Amino acid sequence: MRAAVLTGAGALRIDRVPPPSPGPGQVAIRLEGCGVCASNLGPWSGPDWMQFPTAPGALGHEGWGVVEALGEGVIGIAAGDRVATLSQHSYAEFDVAGADEIVRLPPALDGMPFPGEPLGCAMNILGRAEIAAGQTVAIIGIGFLGAILTRLATDAGARVIAISRRAFSLDLARAMGAAETIAMDDHHAIIARVSALTGGRHCDRVIEAVGKQWPLDLAGELTRERGRLVVAGYHQDGPRQVNMQLWNWRGLDVINAHERDPAIYRRGVREAVELVASGRLDPSPLYTHRYTLERLGEALDATRDRPDGFLKALVLFR
């Protein structure tokens, strides 16, 4: 099979290696594609803690495809089933996953890309945010995740204020149901605008979906007393400082919405499957850039540089 191997900072090669065989409790998956995640950008930059070369297919964790073979003891899954996988080496034509790391895709999704991990992540963030009808929800950062959360929060009956730096993203947020949009360019102007929109009360829920210091600072400022600040951004470039005086005074609930329990991940993916299959959520317009495996480096660079119109890159194998 072909598999991507990272060889250093901003460098990779495509190797031909034997496909992996499933062990007990595992399945082998012939991958159709894999989403490209911003969490890959830390390793792609070549930090001191990275070890090169990586294992074949490493870093790819948003794969989907067709079950090719079953390991010993696997029941309830058949060869030929189309699945989303939470496996970790999906920048390759084949990967293996535990039977508890896949979610079957129904016929309604045939032919559709389905990077289950980020879609499930959005569902889990929504659950941790505890969004309800009548709330005002600010979402800071309208990329792939922020756009989906805008749709989900709006459908839950919340009034969404979308805050992002790109005009393209703000247009998208409006299309996904945001009631208000604000350009992320002036810290104090944003606070004043949100205060005006909420009668000085600020927001019941604020979801930070960028992963940088300034948006985290801004999120605290926009959360009302006894409100909930939800950290959905992936903060991978070092420690953060927080305004604990503000957080204490307002009595904020601060939620780290990242999950590590595979069972919770699977639950989120199953919820996403149900929404997309029923037509209540259509993520397909958000997959804006598609690449072959040989162009994975370009996909990672685009994920980092975010050219105009970029939201989500997919690497497709067939």
TrEMBL record:
This protein's source sits in the domain of life called Bacteria
Q: Which is one GO molecular function term here?
A: oxidoreductase activity, acting on the CH-OH group of donors, NAD or NADP as acceptor
Entries under PROSITE patterns matching the protein: ADH_ZINC
* Keyword Translocase among UniProt keywords: no
Q: Which keywords does UniProt give here?
A: Metal-binding, Oxidoreductase, Zinc
Q: Which family does it belong to?
A: Belongs to the zinc-containing alcohol dehydrogenase family.
Its name, as the record gives it, is Zinc-binding dehydrogenase
Look up and give the organism this protein is from.
Lichenicoccus roseus
